[in-house]
């Protein structure tokens, strides 16, 4: 008889698993999604007449990237109009632009240190210590003037915030020299955009709605929204799944695709019997951080075409003044949340919108702030650093992500830190299925956190969904 398969989560990982199963003859499938929409952390929404992404935004890389490979022949992607690195435009607190020739070289030095795995592997200590030591060594080989070295120090502090955007730790010193290089980026253009249609386009491709709607897979018919799973009983040859609304489902197999932070909060009460220790170790110690977006739409494009981004450089003394000048919003360890709002960029999908990122220890707290405070803080920063050069109007509207404070996500994406390595937590252990007494995989695990080297990416999440679908396909083909 055909097995009953239940998938928890309708993000790209869950949808990937469902589409592959459907294409291979499995039809008794249900997807339970806690939100009122599909997509998970792929979230394309309408904002002031255009589609923007408050989750995943760009396709990062081409070679070996399953997203790129699926859409490459469909003419759906374009290179971003944003300049490629190094192209940061650094503004100083006095409202002037830093010397771009120098900051370009400094940014290139910083990127070179970040990517120098050979040198880093020889360094005993934290990634933070390695970076500061090697960066300053290379800076002093190229620069000697006092003003150049002072600017190098400011760029170093900015780069630390950039690094905890890529690896969303709360603090810079959580990274280690080895953990930083576990992630394996795909080669090619790292900022391929979706031509104003949003990353949600990939869902239409996965479900076959694109390019031929007549061949669309019945994913919508298989998906139940507003279904928050709170109990999985798996000790028999079947699993019983209970939801917060009282509904109950039986299945031969359950594929869990929720975020690792949701598992952190729920695993003790959700699974009966309790999970094995190796699984708990990975759930507890795989870190998932929060990076939130702030999109501001202005009545006019007040920045020139030559300015694609506005990055803020300031000294330690100036940061201390910040708390006094703008005391609104969260302050952690004496530091304002605005320190973690380190840049704004122009985006291709909306000509009058600037996109800023907020990360670090205040990211979740900022998600709880009212829009008015966030707007005031953002405008304080923009006018403080760029208001001397440009007449900056008040924004018409704001759009924000709140991944950290949403109980169905509790974060943005996974990274690797030194504690994870010390405690021997791994994506491999997290991905292992729970087996019944006769060896049948009853509960399977997918999602970006279960990918060994492509965590934090849409393509990584998709690969894990296909992986678990293949596990079941192989099981029944063997039978």
Automatic annotation (TrEMBL):
<dbReference type="Pfam" id="PF01593">
    <property type="entry name" value="Amino_oxidase"/>
</dbReference>
<feature type="domain" description="Amine oxidase">
    <location>
        <begin position="12"/>
        <end position="473"/>
    </location>
</feature>
<dbReference type="GO" id="GO:0046592">
    <property type="term" value="F:polyamine oxidase activity"/>
</dbReference>
<dbReference type="InterPro" id="IPR036188">
    <property type="entry name" value="FAD/NAD-bd_sf"/>
</dbReference>
<dbReference type="InterPro" id="IPR050281">
    <property type="entry name" value="Flavin_monoamine_oxidase"/>
</dbReference>
<dbReference type="InterPro" id="IPR002937">
    <property type="entry name" value="Amino_oxidase"/>
</dbReference>
<protein>
    <recommendedName>
        <fullName>Amine oxidase domain-containing protein</fullName>
    </recommendedName>
</protein>
């Amino acid at each position: 008889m055909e097995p009953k398969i239940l998938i928890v989560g309708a993000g790209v990982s869950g949808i990937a698993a469902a589409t592959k199963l459907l294409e291979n003859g499995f039809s008794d499938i249900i997807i339970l999604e806690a939100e009122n929409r599909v997509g998970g952390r792929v979230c394309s929404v309408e904002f002031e007449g255009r589609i923007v992404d408050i989750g995943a935004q760009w396709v990062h890389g081409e070679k070996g990237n399953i997203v790129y490979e699926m859409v490459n022949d469909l003419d759906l992607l374009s290179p971003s109009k944003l300049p490629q690195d190094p192209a940061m435009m650094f503004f100083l607190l006095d409202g002037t632009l830093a010397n771009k020739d120098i900051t370009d070289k400094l940014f290139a030095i910083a990127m070179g240190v970040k990517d120098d795995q050979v040198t880093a592997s020889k360094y005993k200590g934290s990634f933070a210590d390695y970076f500061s030591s090697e960066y300053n060594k290379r800076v002093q080989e190229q620069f000697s003037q006092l003003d150049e070295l002072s600017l190098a120090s400011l760029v170093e502090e900015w780069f630390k915030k950039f690094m905890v955007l890529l690896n969303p730790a709360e603090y810079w010193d959580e990274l280690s020299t080895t953990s930083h290089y576990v992630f394996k980026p795909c080669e090619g253009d790292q900022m391929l955009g979706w031509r104003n249609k949003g990353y949600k386009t990939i869902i239409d491709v996965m479900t076959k709605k694109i390019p031929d709607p007549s061949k669309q897979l019945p994913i919508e018919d298989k998906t139940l929204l507003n279904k928050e799973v709170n109990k999985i009983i798996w000790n028999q040859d079947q699993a019983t799944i209970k939801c917060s609304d009282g509904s109950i489902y039986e299945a031969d197999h359950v594929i869990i695709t929720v975020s690792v932070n949701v598992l952190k909060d729920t695993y003790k009460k959700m699974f009966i019997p309790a999970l094995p220790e190796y699984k708990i170790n990975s759930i507890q110690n795989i870190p998932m951080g929060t990076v939130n977006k702030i999109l501001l739409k202005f009545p006019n494009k007040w920045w020139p075409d030559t300015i694609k981004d506005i990055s803020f450089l300031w000294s330690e003394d100036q940061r201390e003044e910040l708390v006094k000048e703008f005391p609104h919003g969260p302050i952690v360890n004496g530091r304002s949340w605005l320190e973690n709002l380190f840049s704004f960029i122009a985006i291709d999908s909306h000509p009058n919108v600037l996109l800023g990122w907020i990360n670090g220890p205040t990211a979740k707290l900022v998600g709880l702030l009212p829009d008015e405070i966030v707007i005031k803080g953002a405008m304080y920063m923009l006018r403080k650093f760029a208001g001397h050069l440009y007449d900056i109007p008040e924004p018409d509207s704001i759009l924000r992500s709140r991944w950290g404070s949403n109980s169905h996500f509790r974060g943005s994406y996974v990274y690797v830190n030194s504690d994870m390595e010390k405690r021997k937590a791994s994506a491999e252990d997290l991905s292992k299925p729970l087996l019944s007494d006769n060896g049948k995989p009853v509960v399977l695990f997918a999602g970006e956190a279960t990918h060994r080297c492509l965590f934090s990416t849409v393509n990584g999440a998709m690969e894990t969904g296909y992986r678990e679908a293949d596990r079941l396909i192989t099981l029944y083909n063997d039978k």
